[in-house]
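**User:** Everyone, produce a chain:

**Assistant:**
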Amino acid sequence: MAHEHPDAAADPALRVKALETLLIEKGLVDPAALDALVDTFEHRIGPRNGARVVARAWVDRAYKERLLTGATAAIAEFGYTGMQGEHMVAVENTPTGHNLVVCTLCSCYPWPILGLPPVWYKSAPYRSRAVIDPRGVLREFGLEIGDDVEIRVWDSTAEIRYLVLPERPTGSKQLSEAQLAELVTRDAMIGTAKISVPRSGASR
């Protein structure tokens, strides 16, 4: 099946960027304030949706099964639906398999689940090298994956977007679902990071 992507003129990200540039040029928007707003949605509000999904899958086996077999419907149980999130697939990291998400031809990304895509996700080097040398790319993110662990690279399209279900970190047995959600990062749900429990939060 062909790897189909939306026409550039119809890409919401491109339209937003054009509008942003126009508003800044006319002096109607403060670039610093805009950067702060983008940071909020990229790092705090947006990924929190996906984090709740991941935490629920960690504590609820039935939900995890629904997520892995029908991610779109399972995610919709939280009310997270809409454009860029209509056709979701969840892939699970395990001790023997690690998943990495990329979009080789543009930057298809599950906005309702992860918020705004990071700049590096849209960059040409990441989009090409993630497929050619995923282990090397992950190493540059500070993530060493052993040679005995299979790395699977998933190419998002306009029709299918992926969510990585990270491994639940050791030392998190006593944490509540809400506390677990606080540990989950955007990068872990793309596959460029793992999750660990801060020393002060580890169970004894």
Summary: The two ends are 50 Å apart (CA to CA). The beta strands are 88-92, 97-102, 150-155, 161-165. Confidence is low (pLDDT under 50) at residues 1-10. Residues 16 and 22 are 10 Å apart (CA to CA).
